Amino acid sequence: MSEAARLERGLTAMGIDLPEAAHEKLVAFAALLAKWNRVYNLTAIRDADQILTHHLLDSLVVLPFLSEVNTLADIGSGGGLPGIPLAIARPDLQVTSIETVNKKASFQQQARIELKLENFHALCARVEDVQPAQRFDGIISRAFAELADFVRLSAHLLRPGGRLYAMKGVYPHEEIARLPDGFVLAEAHTLAVPDLDAHRHLIIIERNGTA
């Protein structure tokens, strides 16, 4: 089965309907990631089949939960995950990736150019040093840090009423219990990624009015 066919099958299984142009860009991104990964070690996953499931589909599974988000910061995204797949899937979503490692931020910038992603921007910086002109509707991370650290490092980027979206493996009971004062668990969702036999959860955090 071709990469395009596997991608279409996976998206259909997740109930996500994207235009053909998005499918083409997602397949192109997977190829670009695999190419750069051979030299720059962007991710631990190198197999093309696993890039599709463990990176693309695993990133896009959160798409239905971001319908109210118009501006999104992706923290510590490495090879541009989940930010680049989300930007491809939603051209109306403005995505800013904040990545401290120069070679990874450079790859993201190259992907932006090659895939013509006008709604994606890569920033090479420490998240705690970033002071945006306008704060974001949502902050997302994928295996970035413990929840408490994620909140402490990035909450200053969040607009009033905004939310933090943490993509996790096993449900993080203990991490949720250690959330900083002023922040609470708003929602938790069990995620199912086709052909990925692993625990996946989306943890959504918001201010409780005192932060």
Give a brief rundown of this model.
Its main location: cytoplasm. GO terms for molecular function: rRNA (guanine-N7-)-methyltransferase activity. With 211 residues, the chain is an alpha/beta fold.
Description of the molecule:
By secondary structure, the chain is α/β, with parallel strands linked by helices. The protein has a single domain (58-207), classed as 3-Layer(aba) Sandwich (Rossmann fold). The protein is 37% helix and 23% strand. It has 7 helices and 7 strands, in the order αααβαβαββαβαββ. The chain has a 7-stranded mixed sheet with strand order 3-2-1-4-5-7-6, with helices on both faces. α6 links the parallel β4 and β5. α1 crosses α2 (20-40), α1 (3-13) packs parallel to α3 and α2 (20-40) runs antiparallel to α4 (83-89). The longest helix has 21 residues, at 20-40. It is globular and about 50 Å long. The mean pLDDT is 92. It catalyses: guanosine(527) in 16S rRNA + S-adenosyl-L-methionine = N(7)-methylguanosine(527) in 16S rRNA + S-adenosyl-L-homocysteine. Its EC number is 2.1.1.170. One of its GO terms (molecular function) is rRNA (guanine-N7-)-methyltransferase activity. It is found in: Cytoplasm. Belongs to the methyltransferase superfamily. RNA methyltransferase RsmG family.
